[in-house]
């Protein structure tokens, strides 16, 4: 038996070929993200059709910027689900019940909740790699309405502040 030496040549990739493969991958990822956004936007539209007559509202926000303003509407509960988006929920002009419940589910993004003045806020937050900020003063007066915020977050920021009228 003879020992043979096998010569292996390294295949060189051209710069143009590498750039073409990278561009193809980028276009595929962009297409997948846009398709997902389109599907989630349709889902959000269907979900929010029930908000018209209800005091309990539900919203879905994904891949973008969203401002939700409930001006002059009676609100007893709000659920906001957000994924990779910046969302602002403005309750400063809403007609709040004595106890209003806000449920927040966030994955990578930022949520700002604006409440009217003279409202007590009770924040309960759970999450991973996230931050919770309650900028509303603590009032002792029991006659003020209460906004209960239940926030679950992964890689998101949830901020509560007094909205401007």
Distinctive features:
alpha/beta, 165 residues, 6 strands, six-stranded parallel sheet, 1 helix
Let me know the number of strands.
6
Fraction of residues in H or I helices:
10-25%
End-to-end span in angstroms? 92 Å
Q: What's the order of the H and E elements?
A: HEEEEEE
Count of the separate structural domains:
1
Instruction: Supply the helix-strand structural class.
Output: alpha/beta
- Parts with pLDDT < 50 across at least 5 consecutive residues: none
Q: Total helix count? A: 1
**Chain-averaged pLDDT:** 86
Largest sheet: 6 strands, parallel
Residue fraction in strands: over 45%
Query: What form results from the Cα inertia axes?
Result: elongated
Specify Rg, calculated over alpha carbons. Answer: 24 Å
Question: How is this structure best described in words?
Answer:
It is a single chain. This protein is α/β, with parallel strands linked by helices and 165 residues long. The chain starts with 14 loop residues before the first helix and ends with a strand. Strands 1, 2, 3, 4, 5 and 6 form a six-stranded parallel sheet that branches. The chain has one domain (15-162). It has one helix spanning 15-48; strands spanning 56-69, 74-90, 95-115, 120-128, 131-134, 146-162. The protein contains one helix and six strands, in the order H-E-E-E-E-E-E. The mean pLDDT is 86.
